[in-house]
Amino acid sequence: MAQRRRSRKRRVLVATNRSGDEYALDYGVRLAESLGAELDHWMIVETVDEWRAEAPALEQEKESWKDREPAVQAELKKGLAVEILSRLQPQRYRLVLLRFRGRRGLKKVFPRSEILSILRHGKVSFLVLQRRRRQVPKKVLVCTGGSVYAQQAAEFSARLLGPLGVQTTVFHVAETQPKFILSQGAEKPELDPRMARAMARARRPFERAGSETTEKVRFGKVADQILAETTSGRFDLIVVASHGESGIRHLLLGSVPEELVKRARIPLLIVRATKTRTIWSRLFGRG
Questions:
Q1: Which of 2, 103, 206, 267 could form a disulfide with 168 if both were Cys (CB 3.0 to 4.6 A apart)?
Q2: Contact 47, 55 (CB under 8 A)
Q3: 2-128 — its CATH code?
Q4: How far apart are CA 151 and CA 102, in angstroms?
Q5: In terms of Cα–Cα distance, which of 80, 101, 54, 84 is closest to 62?
Q6: Residue 35 near residue 94, CB atoms below 8 Å
């Protein structure tokens, strides 16, 4: 019976396209421990030659991890990463860590294009490990726009990161309004009351988890201001919400998570939020 319950526990997955990535595995171990989850590692290859080259490395990995906790279940997967990872279900995996590096052809020049394809089709939450950083984030930027999706992202990331003792900044980017232009001399323009309440709600899960939490607001283009804040604040991780934005709004405005994947230089946690949406909101990307 205990074994049956164990097999039903939701897991954390580390997906890579190259062997020998101890950084990604160590990162995944710490987060799996934080969630009380079990850990899988899938090394995804596309050709038979890659399979033959990576198989010995995977066997070495299995041997080195067999006596460590949590145990890592390592598998070699053959096929397109987007097809393999798009079939994952949230009921099975709580989080997927992506660590894809340039390998050949266009992937050497545009290694993030494959990650973008995965994010557009995936149904789970993803943590994109852009560059090698510390395995445990210390300063986290949680981006909120006041929506129900952003609140779900805050609650998920608080459960994930709270036990790690992170310092959290709840961050909002607002468009500059005429009233702010007329009062440029003010040190801190007054925030819309609804957004102030939304930021307070986003702080609560982290405060309950014992994290040191602050708030900050910037004005301007969302992706630009998020990236500027991560640099000036020396953050280790960005948290954003995604609900599979589609329709006309996506075609015209693009997606903030996708923009961050293209430009961010630190790990990015994209929390796949869920909500029942109307036909109108699906068409125009509202909600």
A1: 206
A2: no
A3: 3.40.50.620
A4: 34
A5: 54
A6: yes
79 in Cβ contact with 114 (< 8 Å): no
Residue limits of CATH 3.40.50.620 in the chain? 2-128, 139-284
CATH of domain 139-284: 3.40.50.620
CB-based burial label for 23 (10 Å; 0-12, 13-18, 19+): middle
Instruction: Write the pLDDT tens digit of every residue in 17-35.
Output: 888 788 999 999 999 999 9
Give the contacts of 90 (CB within 8 A, at least 6 positions apart): 123, 124, 125, 272
| CB burial of residue 6 (10 Å; 0-12, 13-18, 19+) | exposed
In whole angstroms, give the CA distance from residue 101 to residue 157: 25
Please tell me the pTM assigned to this model: 0.84
Please tell me the distance from the alpha carbon of residue 24 to that of residue 135, in angstroms, as a whole number.
8
Structure tokens at 134: 């510390």
**For residue 2, is pLDDT > 90?**
no
The predicted-structure confidence for 106-121, as pLDDT tens digits, reads as follows 444 445 788 888 988 8
What percent of the chain is predicted at pLDDT more than 70?
Answer: 79
Per DSSP (E only), the strands in 175-255 are: 212-219, 237-242
Tokens representing 38 are: 């079990």
